[in-house]
Amino acid sequence: MEITPSGQACGATIAGLDLSKPLDDTTIADIRAAWLEHHVLAFPDQQLADDDLERFTLAFGPFGEDPFIAPIPGRDHIIAVKREAGELAPLFAENWHTDWSFQKDPPAGTCLYGITIPPTGGDTLYANQHAALEAMPDALRRRIEGKQAIHSAKNAYSPDGTYGEADRAKGRSMDIRPSSDAEATQLHPIIRQHPETGREGLYSCIGYIAGIEGMDQDEALALLMELYQWQTRDEFVYRHQWEPNMLVMWDNRSVLHRATGGYEGHARLLHRTTIGSQPA
To answer: Distance from first CA to last CA of the chain, Å, rounded?
Structure first.
């Protein structure tokens, strides 16, 4: 197992493993240690069937719950992140976020396996939220210290949200299922300790945050936008370039991520699983 850091704000590549075969406990522990250190891990040159992807995911926690997006046929825990070559719907997941932060127990991580990768474009960006907090000006930190954010999926997945009924009419190839359930809210601290490392970091951003508990809405949104602009500064960002047959796993407790385009006229297909939170 050879680990090569990206040299950017986070991220590393791991070579020397065949993830199509079961991993022993020592190797799993070594991968987890690297994941906690680098937050985003890429495993190139992997020939993975869906069974292999599921087995790898379960080595790091239970499956997480994936609301609002239907799984692929015959599977309960694999989502197809896809875009047809001629698709005109807006790019999926192009805003900074951490997956499913609006849940009571948000997922620990996400695994994404590249099946059809365009020859250009389609990079995924990751923003290191430990680094963002550590470099944050004291004045801004004082304004968010001890505050609870109100998380919700309503702006994305409610019937009138970004991926709501109007979006379905644009011919999106992903099977997104908007629902009024997206209007539910959940509180999480803006600054929180990583449950495994204890390291403090910023958690989530305005994409899934609808307000701040106990704060006037206009004031809260202004603060959240200021925070968002800090969280996603270039010095905290790792740009990941995809290859076919590459598996990437990232720590939703440590990074934000977003999709990018630039592959118009080319199809793109990846299979995604979610690593659920460890039992308390």
So the answer is: 30
Rounded Cα distance between 58 and 152, Å, is 27
Task: State the average pLDDT for the chain.
Answer: 97
> For position 74, what pLDDT does the model report?
97
What is the pLDDT at residue 168? 83
Average pLDDT over residues 19-48: 98
Model confidence pLDDT, tens digit, residues 71-94? 999 999 999 999 999 999 999 999
H-helix or E-strand spanning residue 255 = strand 255-259
Report the candidate in 280, 100, 97, 66 with the shortest Cα–Cα distance to residue 186.
100
Return the C-alpha torsion angle 140, 146, 148, 149, nearest 10.
Answer: 20
User: For the residues of 164-232, what is the DSSP string, one character each?
Assistant: SHHHHTTT-SS-B---GGGG-EEEEESEEE-TTT--EEE---TTTEEEETTS-HHHHHHHHHHHHHHHT
Q: Which one is predicted more confidently, 278 or 47?
A: 47
Tell me: pLDDT of 280 over 60: no
3-state secondary structure 111-159: EEEEEECCCCCCCEEEEEHHHHHHCCCHHHHHHHCCCEEEEECHHHHCC
d(CA 151, CA 32) in angstroms, rounded, equals: 28
CA 280 to chain centre: 22
**What span, in angstroms and rounded, lies between the C-alpha atoms of 67 and 179?**
9
